[in-house]
Write a structure and sequence with these properties.
It holds the Pfam family Methyltransf_10. It catalyses: adenosine(1618) in 23S rRNA + S-adenosyl-L-methionine = N(6)-methyladenosine(1618) in 23S rRNA + S-adenosyl-L-homocysteine + H(+). This is Ribosomal RNA large subunit methyltransferase F. The structure is a single chain. The protein contains ten helices and ten strands. Helix 3 packs across helix 4 (about 125-135). About 40% of the residues are buried. Strand 5, helix 5 and strand 6 (about 165-170) form a beta-alpha-beta unit. It has helices spanning about 25-35, 55-70, 85-105, 125-135, 145-160, 200-215, 230-235, 240-255, 270-280, 310-320, and strands spanning about 5, 40-45, 50, 115-120, 140-145, 165-170, 190-195, 260-265, 285-295, 295-305. It has an eight-stranded mixed beta sheet, sandwiched between helices. By secondary structure, it is of the alpha/beta class.
Length: about 325
């Protein structure tokens, strides 16, 4: 196995160069796309138009406007309490995945419906499939253990013409499994992605919510309201992200020929050494750590493959080469 490669940390003020969400939001343009957003726009302490990011309804309206303006999504809604994702950061993961594929393909991003992506934990918001299909034409399979999330994501994928039947959503019937039960033996994916629950308990998740609320200046309730929401399975899992990623690595080894790249976001630096050790024991042939930055926050995802050089070349020729 090669040593994990950490890419240079990008400028903290910049998103990925292809990310559509650079700079400040144009709230006038977004309100024109989704008039409901105007209800939540008001001058901030500096006299600039803004929204209250501590208000879940405002954040949801902003997301609806962004999805319509930039991705052609006309209908998007979530049940109360479900995770409302910060779209610019989600888009960064997709764009860096495209770069990862390009790095494996002589600098050319594989595009179109022939490229299949597995989104582990698609949630009710279906954000990664929306961005990945609209930006690169990829087909997606999203999985989740929550029947409500599966139902809502299916509805989003079905009612929006912009997605054109490119997104399939499957229920993961076993809460203790990640790939098992949802990937068929004859299926192949060019890349998998995941934003795992990183807290180890509900108490830890709530403590984190309180810190965020305090930073937003809204920590005046007995139980703070999360502006981005989140169900238990979206926020925490027994053992936290370290245990979750250990399970993911173990399961991925059993599907080593079904996928070119396995990837997952990793929230905590302390998780990395254990994940590297697991992947080394499992004989991954390539492991990479890709850094991303959104504002003052630096995040990362880890990518690994089990394919030999000969298998990688065969994969590229079969799945990524331009069709005559």
């Amino acid at each position: 196995m090669s040593q994990p490669n950490a890419s240079a940390t990008p400028d903290k003020d910049l998103l990925h160069p292809r990310n559509r969400h650079q700079g400040r939001y144009d709230l006038a343009q977004l309100t024109a796309a989704w008039p409901e957003l105007g209800t939540y726009v008001a001058p901030n302490a500096h006299g600039d138009d803004s929204i209250d990011f501590a208000n879940p309804a405002a954040v949801k309206a902003l997301n609806r406007a962004l999805l319509k303006q930039y991705y052609g999504i006309e209908q998007w809604d979530l049940p109360a309490g479900y995770l409302v994702p910060p779209i610019p950061g989600r888009a960064d993961y997709v764009h860096y995945l495209a770069d990862l594929l390009a790095d494996s393909n002589q600098g050319q991003i594989p595009r179109g419906r022939g490229i299949r992506v597995l989104d582990v934990g698609v949630g009710a918001n279906c954000i990664y499939p929306i961005i990945g299909h609209r930006e690169y034409g990829w087909r997606f399979v999203g999985t989740d253990t929550d029947p409500v999330a599966v139902r809502v994501s299916k509805q989003i994928a079905t009612v929006n013409r912009a997605l054109g039947g490119a997104v399939e959503v499957r229920l993961q019937p076993a809460a203790t499994e990640i790939f098992g039960g949802v990937i068929k033996p004859s299926e192949y994916f060019d890349v998998t992605m995941c934003n795992p629950p990183f807290h180890g308990s509900s108490a830890e998740a709530e403590a984190s919510s309180r810190r965020k609320a305090q930073n937003l200046g809204t920590n005046n309730a007995a139980k703070p309201v999360l502006n981005f929401g989140g169900q238990a399975n979206e926020l925490w899992t027994p053992g936290g992200e370290a245990t979750f990623l250990w399970r993911m690595a173990e399961e991925s080894a059993h599907l080593r020929h079904n996928c070119y790249w396995f990837t997952s976001l990793v929230s905590k630096k302390d998780t990395l050494p254990g994940l590297y050790k697991s992947l080394q024991k499992l004989r991954a042939t390539d492991v990479r750590t890709i850094s991303m930055a959104q504002g003052q926050k630096v995040s990362r995802f880890v990518a690994w493959s089990f394919l030999t050089e000969a298998e990688q070349q065969e994969w590229r020729q079969k799945r990524w080469a331009p069709k005559a």
